[in-house]
Q: What sequence folds into this?
C-alpha cells in the first residue's frame, strides 16, 4: 500500500507542475501543446548542467540538484519564449506552433546531446547519465499509518513542486497579475480597454509555463528515467494537457486528475506484481489511467469550460 | 496607368512555404558549417541518398532506381498521414491521433490478412480495405465523442493513442512475437504492399505499390474537398461552426464524417507503413509519422497536393540523412533539425502573410491617394 502512495506521488507531482504550466498559458489564451517539448528541453538543460559540473559538485548533492533545477527552469523558459514569439508576435496557429516546437525540441536536444558527449567527454553517447535522486523520509510523520506514506521516500523535487504549486495557485487566483492573466484568456478586449498590454501578459504566461514544465521535466529525468535521452519525450507533456483539460483548466481539479493518473499507474503495477503475471501484462495495466480518464470524461465533459478566447490570435481591431 | 505588380492570394500562399524552406536550408547550412562540414556537399548527399541524383558508386544490383524506389516507399505513409491531418483540419479539427489510428489499422490488417495464406490478388486489396475501415472506425469514435459528449478531440486522441499502443503491445507480446527481432512476426509476401527485391533493369529493388494508391487518393481527396457538397460542408463547418449551423448544415454529423475520412486515410498510412515499408510492428512504439504528418500538412498549406510536395521534401531530408552522414560526415540528427526548422518557419507563415498584406494595403492606399489627386488635378485644370 505504501509503495502505491510513494510511487504514485512521485509520478503525479511532476505531472501536476507541468499541467499548472499549461494552465497558466491556456488561461491567458495561448494553447500550449508545446509542454512536451518544453519539459524535454528543461530536462536536457538540467541534465547538461549536472554532467558538466560533476567534477566540482557531486551529482547526488543538494547543490547539484539546485543547479540542475535552476538550469532546467532557465532553459525551458528561454525555449518557451520561442513559442511565445511565434504565437504572439508572428500570429501563428498556436496548435501548430506547439506541435512544431515539440518536434524541434526532440531534434535539437538529440543533436546537442550526441554533439556535446562527443566534444566534451570524447565518447559517442546519446544520453547524460544522472542516477536516481536520493529519497528522504521524514521521521515521526512517516510513522502515521497510511497517510504516513506521503512522507516516506520523498524526492527533493517533490517538496520543491509542492511549494511552487502553492505559490502558482496563489498568484493565479489571489493576485492582480493572476486576475489579469485569466481575463486575457476570457476577454482580451476588456483587458486591453483597461489599459493593459495583452501581448505582454500572454508572453509572461507562456514563459512561466515553460519554467514550470522545466521543473517537471527535470523531475522525470531524475526519477523515472535516471538519465537524459530523447526517450524522455514519451508523452508526459501530452498527459499533462489531458490532465488540465480534465481538470477544466483549474488548478485544484487538475491536481485530482494528476493524482488519479499517478495512483492508477502505481496501483496497476502493484496489482500486476502481486499476481505475478508475465511482464506482457504490465502493458494492460498501463492503460488503466487512460481508460479511466476516458470513462470519467464521458460523464464530466458536459461542464468543461475552456477559456473563451483560447487559441485566438488577439487582434486589437477586431470586436 | 502603371500599377505595381501585386501578388495574387494564390501566389502568396505558395510563396510562404517557399520562404520557409529556403530560410531553413540556409540556417541548416549554417549549422553544418559550424560543425565544420561542407554544406553544399551535405545537401548534395541528401539528394543522392534519396535516389534523385546519382551516387559515385553503387553496390551490385543497386542503382539510382533502387534508392528512388526506397524513397517512394518511405514517402507513401507520409502522404497519407498528411492527407489525414488535412481533411480533419478543413473541418476545424485537430487529428493528433493519426499514429494510433495507423497502429490499429496496421495491426488488424496484419493479424487478419498478414498471417493468412490468401493469394496476393485477394490479400492486397483486403489489407487496404481492412486498414481503411479500422482507421475510419477509430477516427469516427473520436468524432462521435466530440459531438455527443463534448470531449475535446485532442484529449480523446491522446488517450486512445496510449490505450491502443499498450493493448496492441500486449497482444503482440503474447501471441505474435518474433523472438529474434522483438517485433511482431513479418507479414506474408502476398499481403505486403511493397514488393520485396524485384529484379528490373538489372537492379534489385523494393517496389512500393502504395505510392500509386497515394497519388489516386490525393486526387480523390482534392475532388471531394473542392467539388462535392460534402467537401463544401466540411470546409464551412471548419470556417465557422455557427454560420454552418444557421445555413442548415448538420454540424455534428459533418464533424463525425470528417473524422471518419481522416481516420480512413490514417488507416491507409498504417497499412502502407506496417505492411509495406516495415513489414512488422514494433510493440510499445507509436510511429512518428503521425506527428510528422501534422507538420507536413501545414508546410503544404493544408492542401492535398501541397501536402504531397511537402511530404516529398521532408522524406528526402530524412531518407538522405544516412548517406549524408557516411559521405559528408554530417551527424544524422542534423536532418531532423533542418526539418524542425522548416516547420517552425512555415508556422510563422501567418506572419509573412500579414507582412505581405500590409505591403499590399499600403500600395492600394497609395493607388487610391494617387487616383484622388489626379481627379483633383483634372478638376483644377477644368476650372482653369
A:
Amino acid at each position: 500500500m505504501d509503495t502505491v502512495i510513494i510511487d504514485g506521488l512521485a509520478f503525479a507531482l511532476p505531472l501536476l507542475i507541468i499541467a499548472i504550466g499549461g494552465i497558466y498559458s491556456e488561461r491567458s489564451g495561448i494553447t500550449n501543446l508545446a509542454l512536451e517539448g518544453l519539459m524535454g528541453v528543461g530536462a536536457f538543460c538540467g541534465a547538461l548542467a549536472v554532467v558538466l559540473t560533476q567534477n566540482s559538485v557531486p551529482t547526488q548533492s543538494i547543490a547539484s540538484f539546485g543547479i540542475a533545477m535552476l538550469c532546467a527552469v532557465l532553459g525551458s523558459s528561454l525555449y518557451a519564449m520561442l513559442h511565445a514569439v511565434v504565437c504572439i508576435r508572428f500570429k501563428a496557429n498556436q496548435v501548430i506552433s506547439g506541435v512544431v516546437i515539440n518536434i524541434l525540441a526532440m531534434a535539437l536536444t538529440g543533436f546537442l546531446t550526441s554533439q556535446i558527449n562527443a566534444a566534451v567527454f570524447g565518447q559517442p553517447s546519446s544520453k547524460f547519465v544522472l542516477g536516481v535522486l536520493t529519497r528522504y523520509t521524514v521521521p515521526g510523520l512517516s510513522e502515521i499509518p497510511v497517510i504516513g506514506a506521503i512522507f516516506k521516500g520523498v524526492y527533493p523535487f517533490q517538496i520543491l513542486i509542492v511549494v511552487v504549486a502553492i505559490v502558482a495557485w496563489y498568484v493565479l487566483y489571489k493576485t492582480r497579475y493572476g486576475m489579469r492573466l485569466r481575463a486575457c484568456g476570457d476577454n482580451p478586449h476588456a483587458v486591453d480597454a483597461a489599459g493593459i498590454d495583452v501581448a505582454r501578459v500572454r508572453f509572461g504566461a507562456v514563459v512561466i509555463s515553460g519554467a514550470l514544465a522545466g521543473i517537471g521535466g527535470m523531475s522525470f529525468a531524475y526519477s523515472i528515467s535516471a538519465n537524459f535521452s530523447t526517450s524522455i519525450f514519451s508523452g508526459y507533456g501530452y498527459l499533462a494537457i489531458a490532465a488540465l483539460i480534465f481538470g477544466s483548466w483549474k488548478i485544484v481539479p487538475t491536481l485530482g486528475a494528476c493524482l488519479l493518473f499517478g495512483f492508477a499507474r502505481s496501483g496497476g503495477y502493484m496489482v500486476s506484481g502481486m499476481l505475478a503475471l508475465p511482464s506482457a501484462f504490465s502493458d494492460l495495466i498501463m492503460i488503466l489511467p487512460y481508460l479511466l480518464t476516458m470513462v470519467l470524461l464521458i460523464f464530466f465533459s458536459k461542464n468543461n469550460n475552456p477559456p473563451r478566447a483560447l487559441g485566438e490570435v488577439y487582434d486589437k481591431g477586431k470586436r | 496607368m502603371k500599377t505595381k505588380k501585386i501578388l495574387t492570394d494564390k501566389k502568396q500562399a505558395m510563396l510562404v512555404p517557399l520562404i520557409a524552406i529556403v530560410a531553413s536550408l540556409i540556417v541548416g547550412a549554417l549549422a553544418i558549417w559550424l560543425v565544420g562540414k561542407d554544406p553544399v556537399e551535405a545537401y548534395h548527399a541528401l539528394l543522392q541518398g534519396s535516389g534523385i541524383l546519382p551516387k559515385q558508386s553503387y553496390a551490385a544490383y543497386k542503382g539510382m532506381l533502387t534508392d528512388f524506389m526506397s524513397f517512394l516507399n518511405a514517402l507513401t505513409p507520409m502522404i497519407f498521414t498528411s492527407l489525414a491531418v488535412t481533411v480533419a483540419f478543413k473541418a476545424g479539427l485537430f487529428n493528433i491521433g493519426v499514429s494510433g489510428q495507423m497502429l490499429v489499422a496496421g495491426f488488424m490488417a496484419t493479424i487478419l490478412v498478414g498471417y493468412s495464406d490468401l493469394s496476393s490478388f485477394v490479400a492486397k486489396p483486403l489489407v487496404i480495405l481492412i486498414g481503411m475501415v479500422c482507421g475510419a472506425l477509430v477516427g469516427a469514435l473520436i468524432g462521435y465523442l466530440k459531438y455527443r459528449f463534448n470531449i475535446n478531440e485532442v484529449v480523446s486522441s491522446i488517450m486512445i493513442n496510449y490505450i491502443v499502443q499498450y493493448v496492441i503491445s500486449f497482444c503482440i507480446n503474447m501471441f505474435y512475437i518474433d523472438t529474434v527481432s522483438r517485433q511482431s512476426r513479418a507479414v506474408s509476401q502476398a499481403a505486403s504492399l511493397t514488393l520485396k527485391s524485384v529484379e528490373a533493369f538489372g537492379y534489385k529493388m523494393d517496389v512500393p505499390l502504395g505510392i500509386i494508391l497515394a497519388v489516386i487518393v490525393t486526387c480523390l481527396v482534392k475532388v471531394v474537398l473542392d467539388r462535392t457538397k460534402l467537401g463544401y460542408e466540411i470546409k464551412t463547418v471548419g470556417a465557422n461552426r455557427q454560420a454552418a449551423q444557421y445555413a442548415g448544415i448538420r454540424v455534428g454529423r459533418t464533424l463525425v464524417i470528417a473524422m471518419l475520412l481522416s481516420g480512413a486515410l490514417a488507416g491507409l498510412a498504417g497499412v502502407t507503413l506496417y505492411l509495406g515499408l516495415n513489414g512488422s510492428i514494433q510493440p510499445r512504439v507509436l510511429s512518428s509519422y503521425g506527428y510528422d504528418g501534422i507538420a507536413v500538412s501545414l508546410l503544404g498549406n493544408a492542401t492535398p497536393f501541397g501536402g504531397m510536395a511537402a511530404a516529398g521534401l521532408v522524406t528526402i531530408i530524412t531518407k538522405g540523412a544516412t548517406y549524408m552522414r557516411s559521405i559528408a560526415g554530417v551527424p544524422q540528427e542534423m536532418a531532423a533539425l533542418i526539418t524542425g526548422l522548416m516547420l517552425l518557419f512555415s508556422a510563422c507563415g501567418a506572419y509573412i502573410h500579414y507582412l505581405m498584406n500590409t505591403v499590399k494595403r499600403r500600395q492600394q492606399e497609395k493607388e487610391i491617394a494617387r487616383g484622388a489627386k489626379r481627379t483633383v488635378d483634372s478638376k483644377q485644370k477644368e476650372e482653369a
